[in-house]
């Protein structure tokens, strides 16, 4: 403490001696002091040399005020007592000098007053002094002539009650008569007095003792007067003090009851100023809410909340009837966080009363609430955010369905924007409340005003999912690390998913919700229920379900799982036309849900799991059994699952043992069979989608025991149960032991009991392998199983392709059978029987399978086995009206020939096939490519893959068939009608037919000349067409070689030149060279040579070989006819350029067979101008340096 003196010391020896003696002398009288003031001051100055005359007080003995202040601050108790006594005397007898001394220095004055008050506060708290003060106050109030003079006393009592804790209790107990003066003060028309009285009342009722002692006083005398005072208050001081008293009163349920149930007093009935109504408190608070003062509004809302908190259902109607909620919503436009918080609390309490909604207060105030939440979000007040969102959530949840909350679409959009903003809040607690608000918002009656904002809802869903994904713990988090807040978030998130799914389902029954009513004509809107539902299903599949499953792997919560499974169950009906796809996706993991239900043994979770698994199994059944779906079977399965799944409270090991149990003889209890059948179906649907939660070896044994037990008991399982059991056996066959004879016989007897094997058939490669693996099954059921396999192949493959939901790729319908055929070729006989006995569609599939098998299998024994049956099948197909399967059969026939290695003698079957095929060709039209192409290939290969003896007979058969030769000529005439391809591509079907035709004619021409076979018809060809080789068709050059080798003389064909062609006006005399080359002309020869040269530069290996061979044959023909022309053709300079073009194709291209043959041709006919001796030596040297492997890789023909 900073005093005016730096070194406190005692003032004079007399004062010290008096202090030590402990005596107290009476102060001098006023006259003495006045007469000796100057002398005493001088004495005081002399006694205290440190402070001087300025601080000396005219007392006897002298007193220095500065020393007295220092003593009060640091002196001992005895000295403090002495100094206080001297100061008391000074203030009593010499007050004016003390005031004059302190007035110039305000700091010193305040220091002295503070020191004295501080020293006296402890003394004033004693009961003796408090009673003394109350006595004096009582006297002052009694002798006061006017109530205005009592104001200081009321103020003093209020301050004392505020400063001293026990003062209010002493006042109430010891001086209760003072309360009567307080009542008089409330009736006096002075608001300052009323304010002081209300302040004191507030302190009295803040004490539990005062509340108890003054309870009757309030009920009988104060209540009405207080409300009247509060209602009429004009000054802010009185309003605040009244509200302070009201706040203390509202802490007691008794006082609240009195305040809310007070009736208008009789003495006030004539007073028009008294507030109207039976419950004036709501009207008073509403009046305060109408003020522009945010402090009064906040205090009023505090009192309102303090009233409602006692019993909202009891007191809320009075405030609602007084339209207080309307004014509370108006207050939300303020900037005071305290006021907004208070209003949120009041409205939240009012939401517990249905009248709050039926009076449409929420409809009126929802816009104000949304905007208020928008305004407070930027504030750094998490509790305010949470309270506002909680209020918004309660309004959304409790709003009656019949009263539409969002009558304006704009407000609805603003609410969605608000929810998106709150979801992105960085505070987790706010995000949890926001997700809850979103869940409550997703109600049909909230969003039923067209047009429904599907795009905004989609954005909201994306925001929620993104936020939840960001807040989800990483995969590496430990199980114990998942906080309670994240658990709360996931629970709220799942409720949100459930609500949005239910919303989409509810909208399906509303025609107005299907499409956007405001879409322009002839335009398609993306803002539709169908698009929203598909988005919902897709986002749940890709994000929601994996995220929740990831969470459940770390912290399994039965409540969270229950909501999650309920959501999955609802997703089945979100998009009805995608139910099957979603079911197949969910079918990949039903066992985890089943095991979780067993783990917790939670009744609610068990029921949710059972309901979900039942829906899932039925959906999977209808999705995978389209060809066999029976309403009766589906109904039976539904009843079985609904009844049995909730009772499957077994572990996996117990369930496997359950399958082997046999019911008691003559027992009427079917629960065991029901449980067995349910578990079999559950295993079946899980295994079909890759969820094998039971070891396959154990499952195989359990299912086998189940079938044995059923047979021993004389029980035949339903078709759908047996179907599931057979599938499980087939799936586990490779991991289990081979079925013994007893098991095979048992299964066979059970299957014999069904009239149609299709009732228990499952289109699965493993089941096909299962039936064909055991001879006991293949001999009895092989034909039916293969029939079903090919009958169901296309539809099942289509279903798999349509699934598109991540289901594991199924093998192609033919591939599994091909693997089985390779290991068991005897199945081929069954397939050939199917070709004869099945429908056209099934026969076509069988033939396609056989063709694929033959293309990949070169087993000669298999081909011999098939050839013996082809004649019978071909004769049967020719008898039938349709020939759809004929092309496939003919392709197979050709493949069988192609797989036969070496040369063999044709037998009777081969000649019959040759006769049938040639006749079939004669009946075809030129455009029947699918029939002619494989037939001509078969005929061509029959000529080349046999002995000369059989070859001669085959040529005779073919040349005797006039219709065959005629169709060949018609087919080959189409050669000049087709335009060449600009780029090398695979041969089209038409080109392939032409290739086969030209090759067959060339072979017939060659072999007819060799065997001098009789010909019944002659083919006519114009030399102008096939000699001008404008197209790179190497098969025509095969025909040209054959013609040149026979010197154009054959009984099979006639070459018509230009001079002998039809339409020639007059014959022209040929030159000597033309006559020597007849039927060719020199010009035709040169044209042919140019065409061959052009074809050589096409860089086609097959074409180059054919061109070189044709050029060799042509030069040989010319050399025989006219050597000059032949040498001229062989030595043309253009050949050298052509040779170098071929040599530049690649490295060491001179070693290519066609290049070597071409150089050999030039050397044979002494064309030194084309290739010199030096160049030949260089080529030979490079060839000698090349190794043997390199030469073989280049395909060098050493025979040249």
TrEMBL record:
InterPro entries: ARM-type_fold, Immune_Signaling-Apoptosis_Reg. One of its GO terms (biological process) is meiosis I. Residues 1-33 are annotated as: Disordered. This is Meiotic double-stranded break formation protein 1.
